[in-house]
Amino acid sequence: MLSGDGMGVPYGASIRAGVAPGHKTCVFGVGPVGQGMTMIQTFLGARVIAIDINPQALKFATEMGAWKTINPKDTKDLKAEILDLTDGLGPNESFDACGNQEMFNVAMEVTMPGGTLMTVAHGSHGIDSVRERLSFHAYPPKWEFWGRNLCVRGNWACHFSDYTDQIAMVRNGLQVKRLITATYPFEKAAEAYLN
Q1: pTM of the predicted model, to two decimals?
Q2: Whole-angstrom Cα distance, residue 136 to residue 20?
Q3: How far apart are CA 107 and CA 195, in angstroms?
Q4: Is the pLDDT score of 52 beyond 60?
Q5: Strand partners, 49
Q6: Nearest to 27 by CA among 151, 101, 117, 87
Q7: CA angle 123, 180, 119 (to 5 degrees)
Q8: Close Cβ partners of 110 (under 8 Å, ≥ 6 residues apart)
Q9: Could you point out which of 32, 95, 164, 178 has its C-alpha 20 to 30 Å from the C-alpha of 157?
């Protein structure tokens, strides 16, 4: 848990992005990493908006403490809904945990000016694809990260230096065991992965 996707990566991404009490955050993709982010960010005092196309994942995100959940398939305008939930400002921090270019673009567009977009997902998504959509002749810039002072970062792994603080969170009440939904013998690892 401490070094992997359940707590390690979500902890590192959340802390490095600057999640703090009272912040509104948006987690795009609530698979294992996104669930961990939802749990940790809620523990840190943030209001988490969880976004995913899987209703079961959204239900679990609610159990992990998500303030609001959104299924992009069930909304006509995802950006407008996120902005509505954040009083028109956008989330303080957004987290790409799905690796989907369309969702990365939405995250880039809605994160508040001066906010942070953290990506932890595997995929071919990235800023180069975003730049193709920009008009370099338009001023003021519409939504590009440099025109809104966004910080775009990546977080790949947990570091040993993070362990002490993670253990302290658990000792102070973080119920990390909620992330464990079942156990399997090693021989059934492939089955466990699919479940």
Answers
A1: 0.83
A2: 34
A3: 28
A4: yes
A5: 26, 68
A6: 117
A7: 25
A8: 26, 79, 82, 83, 86, 90, 91, 94
A9: 178
Backbone angles phi and psi of 93, in degrees to 5:
-135, 140
Q: What is the pLDDT of residues 129-156, one digit of tens each?
A: 555 555 444 444 444 666 778 888 888 7
Residue 53 CA, chain-centre distance (Å), reads 14
| Per-residue model confidence as pLDDT tens digits over 75-114 | 999 999 999 999 999 999 999 999 888 999 899 899 999 9
Amino acid identity for residue 173 in this structure: G
Do residues 56 and 35 touch, judged by C-beta distance below 8 A? no
Residue with tokens 């940790």: 40
Task: Give the helix/strand (H/E) hosting 80.
Answer: helix 78-85
Query: Residue type for 95, please?
Result: F
3-state secondary structure of 151: strand
